[in-house]
Every structure is written in structure tokens, then in C-alpha cells.
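Quick check before the chapter quiz. The format below is the same one you will see on the exam, so make sure you can read both the input and the output lines.
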Amino acid sequence: MTICSGPLGQLNIIWWPVPVITLTGPKGQLSMFFTPYAAHYTLTAFLTFLVFEIKFLSDIFNFEIKFHQFVGININILSTSHSPAVLQKENVSSTQYNHHYDDDHHHHHRYETRGLHRFRRQATSSVEAAAAGDAGSNSNSLSTVDVASLGRLLTTFVNRVMPSCVLAIIYDQSFADSPVLNEVMNLPNTKQLVYVRPSNSSSDLSVVLWASRECRGYIMLLENLEPLVQFGKVLPDQWDYQGKYVIVSPSVSQLDEFCVTDKGRKTEQIAGIVKAKSDGVWSIYMNILYWRTGMMRNNVWRRNNFTQPLDPYPDKISNLRGATLTAITFEWEPSVLYLKDKQGNIIKHYGIDIEVMNAISKTLNFKLDFQEPPPGELWGSNLDDGSWNGMVGKLASNEGDMGAANLFLTLKRNGVVDYSQPYDAEVSCFMARTMPPEPKWKALMLPFAMETWGVLFIFGIFMGALLCFLANASNQCGGEDPGILSLEACMLYSVSVHMRESHHVVPIRVTTQLFILFFWFYAVILTTAYCSNLTAFLTIESKPDGIETVQQLHAAGLEVSSLGPFFKGALSSAVDPYLKELADRFVPYDSLGVVFPRVLAGDSFYLHNRQFLEYIITTEFTNGGSTSMRIMKECFAPYNIAMALQRNSPLKRKFDKVILWMIESGLVRRWFLESLRADKQVKQQEKKENSDGKSEDAEDDGGLVSLGLDHMQGAFFLLVIMLVMSILVFFLELCFFRIRFGSYARRPSGDVKKRVINISDFDGYTYNP
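Here is the expected output.
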């Protein structure tokens, strides 16, 4: 009924089924919904209309409504203008109470209607334009029973499934004047109302608030789902993939059409409501993910009740019913390994990442279809046009459901794909060639450090001199063996003790005996340590120290390389200044077969995660217990390793849960060790086949090593040195003897026999003709 009218508009009130006050003006329509508990409808409407008329004089809808001392009034904005307004919560708590004082300090309560400011900005189309674009015959041919039944269905649905959710109510012209909309509007939830015009396709849907920290529900009252279908194919970020959707549709086929769009495929909670043949009967459908497309009926509403317990959003990921999911991967040891036949065909996939995917597939009941990215693209890189290739590119274009191959978590990729819960962690390390081993003849010196040898040399001279001093001092108190009274004899005695060789001279005095006793204890400990360590150095190759720190690598000026450009970013973003400067020397390669020879030649250091380097060194560069490659001690940049999923994939939540189970049970580490053992057996089998069944490995001898000439070259080398020194000393003695006693040597033999030479003349030498 019309309450009053003015030059610029009129006011109408609808009392049933929900009290509605409608204010109509040249630029739009303002409708106010009241709960059944509100009072004074006519008075409130008249006061509101007066304010409305006054504000029209300055600027249509440029107004603010103030109510004083009205309790229980619930006001919401319903716009049929160009852009929808925001419909806010309908109870007293939703009304903003702004307490303030006026100039006379009188206290007032100001009730500001929420949403009017947005309605003012959005009410730009005239009533005539709205009528021309939106009016027409109502295509909704529902009976009164169907309409009443649908209203009760939606009310019951919301109260049971999403009672505390924020609602977005999206409707088109067919439901604009329907009591169904009034029933939904009367719900106590906080609401947003969006009108979809037939002529505007999907653009009206872009104004929906597609995000909320709270539970979010979406009720779509649409006679034609074409705008929704079009919207499902564009703007992937403008959608709430975790929200709860209720779509009232004229047919199941239109629901199916939406469910195969990019947004429909990735939304787990979609419920469809379609009219059944009987009056007041509505069929409830739910969307299916992965194992089938489209919708499937799971309940029926008969006027007032559901025929089955209401469960419109069951878990659809825990059991995928044998669906086939595509996994993008490629061979990357030890994360992904291939077992191939003689023709090169892949028989089996195994490795850490493969085991993780297999465990998830068994838990969630789906099958894996492994596919590879194009050759050389591997994980993928960002192209000039903003797109991606490789694994990331396939997931971004929805050509795969998941991807795994030692994939690091990076912010750059995170905007293109979603990551699962990390299931492994690694650090970035440098691999370099192993320095050539020390010559075996150096093994005689290696048991002791150089400073130890220096101390032993000085201590040996000191002990010989101390023995000479004690022996001569003891000789003053009584006789001492003359064999240890000279300095030369004591020095020779010290050398023999250090060699643990007994001497024929036995000290007589107690002081000298005690000294010799402790000297021998010291010598036994010293020689035992030397002999034990010498055995180790003779049987084990000793390698010189190489570059072990980032600072040393920076000072060496060598090339840093890796497969692809990924690690250059890691170096550039490092805090360490030496790592930053290494980025200038970084060279990316496309093939390991190109970079590894450079590393073996000592021209490059290869950068990758430690687990991969350990595997490569063990399987490719280890032979007979010795390795030609090593890992530099200092590493940097820890990374998490995870699976990649499609952006907004519904699989992520369940995948993360299963991966946490794996980590807690220690399965990832176990799979790594099993993969290494399996790959080692495969490579050994390949070696046997390539060598006609003869293994290239040495026979198992229980770990014993036979010492060959190579091990003992130090002893022979020392023997040669001693022989040379002995020969030199012999010639020196011979020359000295001829110079000093040459006259005796030149006499005739007869004269020599008649003369006795005093032994003291030869200073220790005895000449016996």
C-alpha cells in the first residue's frame, strides 16, 4: 500500500510476508526490511520518507538517516540500481551505536544505517533505465507451493549448515520480487546482496566480496546460470574456493556446465537445488570432484523436510574412488628414479618423491598417471610474456594435478602454483673434485704433524746431551761405563732408544739407570703411536686440504655452476657478501654431462642441494671406496621440499594431512635409504651386464688390504736415501783418512810391519796393518 508520495518519489509498505518499506525515486529504489518484532512501522516509514524527500532536494540519496530512541529496528539496503549495495546484518547488534555529545553536552544515541553510503555511490541508474533493462515477463513459472517450499528449504538449509556464516545473496530478475528472496533476507546472518542483470553477463559478480575470515556462504538465486558459467572461466582470484555454495538452478545441465569450469572444478562445497516434478518438491545435488564431473543428487526436500539426513557438503577428497590424477615429474636422482628395460622404456618409477605420491594415492584411493615436461624445461622458468614452462607451466595451465621432483619452495613460484606441506629439507652445497692423494712415500712423515717432528728432533738432541751430562757427573762419584761418557756415544744412544733398539752399553750408576728407564718408557709410547698411525696412512689414501669455505672459494676466483638459473637467485639474495659476489661468476648449464667434466678438471664448483650431491657422488664418482668428488664443508640457504599443486587445488588440505603422517612416522628418511639401495643394485646389475657378467668390483676380502709396492714406497724411498747418505759418508771418511794419515799409507809394507802405531793418533780409528 502507498503511504505517501511527493514530487520526487513515493513510499510503499508491504506488510506480508515480511514488512518492507519501499522508497522510490528517480535514481533508484530503497527498500527497508523489518523483523516481525519491530513496531511502529507506519511512523518509522513516514519519518524515513520525510528525510528521504528533504535530501532529494540537494542530491538524490546523498543523505544520512538518524533514529532516536527506537529499539529493535533492523534496516537493510536493497538496491536495484546499476551496482548492488551491501546488505548488512539485520539485528540490533548490527546497527552502529555511536555515542557522542553535542555542543551542549547532551547525550544522544545515533543509529546510523549501515550500507547507505555505499548505496549512495552505487545508485546511479534511473528507474526508467532499470525498468527498460530488467523488467519483463517473469520467466519463473513456479507455483505458490513451490515458492513457499523453496523459501523454507533455504531457511532450513542455512540454519542447519551455515548458521553463523556471512552470506552473499546473488539473485537475478526472476527472484527480484519473489517471496523466496524475502525469506532469505529475513535470516539473522550478516549479508551482502548482489543483483545480476541479464544484460551485464558476469561483470556484476565481480563486486561480490569473495573473501572473509569467517565462515562464508553464497546463495545464488538464478534463473539463468550463464553469467555464473562465464564468471567461472575468468578471474581465478575472484572466487572463494573454501566457501559454501547453494545454487538454485532451473536444470541440472546448467549446474553441470558450471562444475566443469576452472572455478567449479576446484570448489569442494557446491550444493545445487533443482525443482522436481511434484509440487513443493526440490532435489538437492552435490558436485563431484575428480572421479566424475558434474552433479549428483544426494537428498530431496518435500515441502517441509528432507527425506534423508542433510549432508550437502560431504568429504569428497578422502576417497577419490580410483580416479586417475596426472603427476608431472622427471628423472632427478635420488628424488625420482626410473627403472628401464634394455630398450629404454620406463618399467617403474621410484625414489623419495615417487614414494610420497604413491603413499598419498593409496591413502586417498586414486591412481597416478606420470607425465614429463618437455625436454630441458624441468621445473620450468618464467618466460618473457609472464607465462611459465616446464612442470610449473603444466600445473598453471591445469594440464597436471600435482608435480614433484625435488621441488624447492620459492616465493616466485608460489604465485603460480600451490605448495603442499614440506616433507623434506635440504641445504645448498658446493661439489668440487677431490684433491689428488698424497704420494705414498709421504706416509712416513704423515703420522706426526710437522710441529711434532720438530719437537721430537729437538727433544732427541736434548736427551742425548742430558745423558752425557748425567753419565759424566756419575763418573765423578764412581766408575761409569766409558761407552756413554762421550757426547757422540750418547747421541747415538738417544737415536737407538727412539728407534726402540736396545744398546750394548749398560749404565752402572743408579742415577743413569733411572734416567735410561724413563727414557725407554717415553720411547715405547712414542714409537707405538707412530707405528699404529703409520699403518693407517699406508693403507688409506691421504688427500690434501682443498677449498672448504665460501671465502676460500671467493678468493680462488673459480666458476660456480649449476643446472639452470635457479641457484643464481639464491646467491644474489644471500646476506653473505662473498655469496653475493659468487653470483657474478655463476654459469647455468642445460646438461650434467657438460658441467661435470669441468668440475673434475678443477675449473668449476657445482652448486645443488646436499642430498642430490651425496647421491651423485655415491653412484657416479665412487669406485673401490675412493671418490673423485667431494662436498665443500660450508653450505648455505636451507630449502624446504614439497609437492606442487594447481592454484587453489582442493587436494591441498588432504595432501597436507597425509604428509604430516609420513613425517611423524619417519617414512621419508626410510624411503630415501631404500631408494639408494635399490638404485645401487640397478647400477651394479647394469655393470655386470656391460662387462659380460664379470663384476668390476674387487672381491670381498673382509675389509683386509694387502700392502703393495705403492703402499711401501716410503720404506724403499727411505732406504735409498740412507744408502746414498752412507756412500757419501764413506767417501768423506776415505778422503779424511787419506788426508790425515796419508804418510803411513804410502810406506812399504815391510816398514809398516816393523812399527806399532798408537791408536790415539787416529782419534778413535785403529789401523791394523
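If your answer matched, good. The first strand starts at residue 2 and ends at 6.
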